[in-house]
Design a protein that fits this description.
This protein is an alpha+beta fold. The protein folds into 2 domains: 60 residues, no CATH class; 84 residues, Arc Repressor Mutant, subunit A (Orthogonal Bundle). The chain is built from 5 helices and 9 strands; from the N terminus they run βββββαβαβαααββ. The chain starts with a strand and ends with a strand.
């Protein structure tokens, strides 16, 4: 079984054999424990693996505008909460902006909550982080730590 992982040091997507214990990044030389890395895609086919690595790398290099802004999160709130916050929905571009503002060394849920609050959003940081992961805005090099793509 093969998988696509992203190096936590140089942010390079690469394919790995998931049955091995460690893998060395060809970009920066970092040795990583494969079973501790987040696997973005899995396949049994090496040719399909190459295509998945290419698509992941391409997605990481393209401009965010290429993805569109079709992802919108909204949270139901009481009238009092609506008055206190400027906007209760966060679109794709907003999530990208917040992720990039936290990008220096990565961020956790507490950092994300603080950034959301600073921007005037009253949203669940765990839900936002989950959507950011699913949409390819961030990746999770270590459990509970995120970095933008």
């Amino acid at each position: 079984m093969f998988g696509v992982i992203i190096c936590p040091k140089c942010n390079r997507a690469r394919g790995v054999d998931l049955s091995v214990k460690t893998s060395k990044c060809p970009g920066c030389g970092l040795h990583s424990e494969v079973d501790r890395m987040r696997t973005y895609f899995q396949t049994d086919n090496e040719q399909e693996l190459a295509e998945l690595v290419r698509r992941t790398s391409s997605r990481m290099q393209h401009s965010i505008e290429d993805y569109g802004d079709d992802v919108i999160l909204a949270r139901q709130a009481t009238e009092e909460q609506r008055k206190k916050t400027r906007n209760l929905s966060l679109d794709f571009d907003g999530m990208v902006m917040i992720a990039r503002s936290l990008s220096s060394v990565g961020f956790g849920l507490d950092d994300l909550k603080e950034a959301l609050t600073k921007e005037g959003y009253d949203l669940d940081p765990a839900k936002i982080a989950s959507v950011m992961l699913n949409e390819g805005i961030v990746y999770e090099p270590k459990p509970g730590r995120f970095r933008p793509l």
